[in-house]
Amino acid sequence: LITGENGTGKELIAREIHRLSGRANEVMVSVDMGAITETLFESELFGHEKGSFTDAHESRPGKFEAANKGSLFLDEIGNLPIHLQAKLLAAIQNRQVSRIGSNKPIPIDIRLISATNKDIESMVREGLFREDLLYRINTIQIEVPPLRKRGDDIMVLADFFLRKYSSKYNKPALQINQQAREKLMKYSWPGNVRELQHTIEKAVILSDSHVLKPEDFFMRQVASGKAADTARTLDEMEKQMIQQAIDKHSGNLSAAAEQLGITRQTLYNKIKKFEL
């Protein structure tokens, strides 16, 4: 199970896990769980036989069958409605699927990789995600930190994207000057690696010199005027509120949780998340 904010590169990590595995020569099938409609869930994942429903003009294998011997990547698994989670759990647990319109079980041998940007453990507590399914998918869990917490990765990735787009748009020898580098390092990157990638590409496209300066990089304005200097992402604001509540109550977590309007357990999780 790969967890992390949107744009942190969870699918890239999934592909690297597959590439470095013993299944590297087999297929990796990706499924966006948030994009599958509830009515097509079983057909997409488990397949169907010809004539099993109105538009089933021919038999078709599902994603589990397609990924057999390889890897199946279930992206945004946290978006799966709870009443469909039991069907997914049964397939994973029994290592077999049955197509719609058939009672014949088909054995499945896959490496299962899942990803989500949601707090799955909180969803379990709120009854939105099955605990038994979580235990099945998170044997190994990789948490991808947001870009703002990855220090020098910002410029390593920026230089990588600069080379990529300099080549693509036939603008060789482009460089980022020191002031622009400082601007990139100071920004909080709420959209993570995906936002950095688009920011570099736009700068390359619009550049009219060999040196990219601070004004060549367009980032979101989180706040304006005096507030711009203290603009923070929602995570940073939440972290500060929690720290202030803990300080106010001299470390009494029950009192701090009550002030914040959350349970003591949720406060524990937030403390762990923000490394307070």
Provide structural commentary.
This protein is an alpha/beta fold and 276 residues long. 43% of the residues lie in helices and 12% in strands. It is built from 12 helices and 11 strands. It has a 5-stranded parallel sheet. A two-stranded antiparallel ribbon has the order 3-4. A two-stranded antiparallel sheet has the order 6-7. Strand 6 and strand 7 (105-107) form a beta hairpin.
Question: What's this entry about, in short?
Answer:
By secondary structure, this protein is α/β, with parallel strands linked by helices. It has helices at 10-19, 41-46, 63-66, 82-94, 120-125, 131-137, 153-168, 178-186, 192-206, 234-248, 253-260, 264-274; strands spanning 2-3, 28-32, 47-48, 60-61, 71-75, 96-98, 105-107, 111-116, 142-143, 175-176, 211-212.
Query: Termini separation (Å)?
Result: 24 Å
* Total of DSSP H or I helical runs spanning 4+ residues: 12
Based on secondary structure, the structural category is alpha/beta
Q: What is the H/E order?
A: EHEHEEHEHEEEHHEHEHHEHHH
The quaternary organization reads as single chain
Largest sheet: 5 strands, parallel
